[in-house]
Amino acid sequence: MYKNNLILVVEDEDEIANILLSYLQRAGMKTLRARTGEEAISLNRLNKPDLMLLDIQLPVCDGWSVLTTLRQESPVPVIMVSALDQDVDKLMGLRLGADDYVIKPFNPSEVVARVEAVLRRTQASVQQLSDAPLRTPFITVYPNDFYVEVTAGEEAISPVLTTTEFKLLTYLMRHPRKVCCREELLNACLPEGDALDRTVDSHMSKLRKKLELAGLFGVPESIRGMGYRLGEKR
Q1: 170: burial class by Cβ within 10 Å (0-12, 13-18, 19+)?
Q2: CATH topology (fold) of 6-127
Q3: What are the DSSP calls for 88-120, one per residue?
Q4: Angstrom distance (rounded) from CA 55 to CA 194
Q5: In the chain, what are the domain boundaries?
């Protein structure tokens, strides 16, 4: 199912990179390898990979910096790979827009399974959405085009969202008056992810900040003790 998907492996240690490349290729995927953060950003722009495996502890430009740059210009799914195993590091990855987090040392077969899970989630999300644009007076979502247009100011702005952020926004747009609990959002938008409330909170916080930068405040709206709903412009 995932044959010929292009995976960009960003890893400066040859031994680890070669193991990942070998297992991914054995699973039928195409691969690219970057040794530095700068090279990762360049290869992503040139080759548009289907997913990136991104080491955090890279020389000069670390994985956090790479992920921050990516989320300003690309929706490519990203799985962070790191020896940093504290909760704060995992949450940092989620807040910056990562789709998953793998801790070293890892089982390479598990990494391949996680890659397939993220690909399944991200690719199916676009295929299953209807063609019709979803509109409010200040925001329009084009599900099949993976495109959002905010018209809260004098001109339209199109924020770059991750696949998960896009799915969450689309789900709320389809149920504009409903307060959606975190479990519902996890099941609808993150079926292969870790079932943690804070996972939804992290993605929602990032989505809200991107919409605020586009001039749209109050979306999505957090309802204390209940969950989230689309909300209205403030």
Answers
A1: buried
A2: Rossmann fold (3.40.50)
A3: HHHHHHHHHT-SEEEESS--HHHHHHHHHHHHH
A4: 20
A5: 6-127, 129-229
pLDDT tens digits in sequence order for the chain, 234 residues long: 667 799 999 999 999 999 999 999 999 999 999 999 999 999 999 998 999 999 999 988 999 999 999 988 888 999 999 887 777 788 888 888 899 999 888 999 999 999 999 988 877 655 555 567 899 989 999 988 889 999 977 789 999 998 889 999 999 998 888 888 888 888 778 765 555 667 889 899 999 999 999 999 999 999 988 899 998 876
For the CA atoms of the chain, what is the radius of gyration?
A: 18
